[in-house]
Specification:
By secondary structure, this protein is mainly α. The chain has helices at about 1-30, 30-50, 65-70, 75-85, 85-105, 105-120, 120-135, 140-150, 155-165, 180-195, 200-205, 210-215, 220-245, 255-260, 265-270, 270-280, 285-315. It has 17 helices and no strands.
């Protein structure tokens, strides 16, 4: 009995000590905790709060009754979703665009950062970065309008492709469903390559110069220094960004889809994100839309967990 009381008192002391330290830390770093409060509130309101709406995926939602009063239907909405004739097509389209983005878009900012690092003229670097950053800050509506102009029958890209291939295009390239993924991913690279390269440029700036000097003494040229010094040094950053990217592999930019899609390219342009929008907003089928959105989120979670697990087994870099 005395031993149990001693253990209880010891745990109470630990609790008191913890809360005392927390109050002391709050008193000292009050301004830092206030700054931290802003993102915490943002995530609580806009990220975790809306998760309550996922209950609609298991209900026959009625706007008049609300989430709390709508009848439960179990997994009926998921059955409707998986049996929808558009499910397979939209899933394949989502995978096609996502895989193309990972294969072609993801390496481009890394390559761009490496090229920027090899330029000796700082003034020229600033000019290049300023010019390449501009598309990222242009409204997506304007960007998509520019894309439509570029790939029109007499657009600059269509003319260039015609001169290279010898094929005359009498209509916009966007009207060709087989080219939708190429245009979508290619325009993403053009718009965001420079902005996405910032984190890699920062990582390269942190590489110790002594490593380059040692490699140069050993006879390594610029290309070998990049291969054996720069890339291994920024590899943890690359792996971390890849894990995060895989966590949103099914989250295709729906706003851009809406702005570029038409009746002629819908066969390969409609994705799961577009399906969720169409069912939820256009058809007001909130339960089916929520089921599709929940499925989308679960798949993203599976991908990020699997990628993190593989990275943990194959390297020393992982998120958890």
């Amino acid at each position: 009995m005395a031993k149990q009381n001693a253990v209880t008192k010891k745990s109470d002391v630990k609790k008191v000590g913890y809360f005392a330290r927390l109050r002391h830390d709050l008193a000292i770093n009050k301004s830092l905790y206030l700054i931290l409060l802003v993102p915490v509130l943002w995530y609580a309101i806009f990220a975790y709060g809306p998760m309550y709406g996922a209950l609609m995926a298991f209900q026959k939602f009625n706007a008049r009754l609300g989430i709390g009063g709508s009848p439960w239907v179990g997994f009926d909405n998921f059955v409707r979703f998986f049996s929808d004739p558009y499910f397979t097509r939209d899933l394949i389209n989502t995978l096609r665009i996502s895989i193309a983005s990972v294969v072609f878009y993801f390496p481009m900012p890394i390559i761009f950062a490496l090229l920027i690092n090899e330029i000796d003229s700082r003034r020229f670097v600033k000019v290049v970065q300023t010019i390449t950053y501009i598309p990222h800050f242009i409204s997506l509506v304007v960007v998509c309008g520019m894309i439509k102009t570029f790939v029109a029958s007499d657009g600059i890209i269509t003319t260039l492709v015609s001169s290279i291939t010898g094929i005359e295009f009498k209509e916009s390239l966007l009207n060709n469903a087989n080219l939708f993924t190429t245009i979508f991913v290619g325009s993403d690279i053009w718009q965001n390559i420079a902005w996405s390269s910032i984190i890699y440029i920062a990582a390269i700036m942190g590489v110790e110069q002594q490593l380059y000097e040692a490699a140069a003494i050993d006879g390594a040229g610029r290309l070998r220094q990049v291969w054996y010094v720069t890339l291994p040094s920024i590899l943890p950053t690359i792996i971390t960004m890849l894990i995060l990217r895989m966590g949103s592999i099914f989250s295709v930019n729906n706003e851009k889809i809406l702005l570029l899609i038409n009746q002629l390219n819908a066969e390969q342009g409609e994705t799961l994100s577009y399906y969720i929008y169409k069912k939820g907003i256009t058809n007001a089928d909130y339960s089916l839309s929520s089921a599709a959105g929940l499925f989308n989120s679960v798949i993203n979670l599976v991908f990020v967990v699997a990628t993190n697990y593989i990275s943990k087994k194959c390297s020393d870099t992982y998120l958890w």
